[in-house]
Amino acid sequence: MNLPEHLMGYRRSDGRSGVRNLVVAMAAADNVNPLLPHLQARCPGIVTLPASYGRGQLGEDLEITLRTMAGLAAHPNVAGCLVVAFERASAERILARVTERRDDLRPLSFLEAGGMEQCISAAEGHIADLVALASRQERVPLGWSDLVFGLECGGSDTTSGLYANPALGRLSDQLHERGATLVFSEPVECLGGEANLTARARTPAAARAMLKAVRGFETIARDAGIDLTGVNPTADNIAGGLTTIEEKSLGAIAKTGTAPIEGCVGYGEAPDGVGLWMMDAPAAAVENLTALAAGGCQITGFVTGSGNPIGHTIMPTLKITANQHTVETMPDHVDVALSQQFASGVDLDESASLIAGTLVSIANGKPTAAENLGYLHSNISRFGKSV
Fold this sequence. Notes:
It is built from 16 helices and 16 strands. With 387 residues, it is of the alpha/beta class. It folds into 2 domains: 22-135, Sugar-phosphate isomerase, RpiB/LacA/LacB (Ribose 5-phosphate Isomerase B, Chain: A), CATH 3.40.1400; 144-377.
């Protein structure tokens, strides 16, 4: 596999590097979401991140939400972010969690502006400044050690487990050797494959943390009166030929390659060092991608069998499939088609090289299928009740 010496991207003032140069307007809570479509209409080219909630949250649930929003606002793919809130404190508490405050992050209060039109007008001024800042950013060479790469799968089937995930796993190992940081998640989809994970744990503490994450989802299901082995695989997984949770899990784990696993981070939490990490996040694709983005992943490789189309709003999401039906029926949603390679028994390293080539192109600016279609979304998971 011939990876180039460099990627091309953007150096940020906090020392991190991105592969997109986005200007973002983020809602701090759902009560200012209606402003975002107006801002997007008046400021073409910006990206908006609505809030699903944001008020009345407590404890760990609130902390996870604020950490995730801070991670998105200060994401390395973001050249500037305007955080719009009803009252200033809601924006400031997000920005206060950015460990190295950047001059391209700004709060705006609806109340202080004095209403919708006044707030939109003020936002337009801030956005114009942020766009000007972004326009001065130039692409520069990046090393592979600058890359934080997410690993995801969804709508899994036999082609995912037997071929596409293992091919992504081969690339994962190559990126790991080059010094990249890799993050996989969905501990619930490791159920039955725990021995595979713990055997690769860098330390006993890492092994315990991963087992705790997997067991945590078993507990959530059991407390709800649900046996996970009875509902997972899901209907689309079964239609794709997966018959047990163990089959699904071993296929999902294959995308992580063979490298040692450093530890387990929380939802939307950035890894504390290079290497391969697990993230404790639910399996729902949009929520999971949002967690990976908030954790600093600039790009995510997403293997799908049945053709899950979703991409994240600020993190290019590279769709990979070895399912011929998906390639034929949804070609506009596929970035890397491996169905012919799978059918022909092509070596996994060759298919990993195809994924690598597309990864490099996307990192260097080529839009993903989801970006081309605008099939993008962001949504943070909930971990508690509101008051």
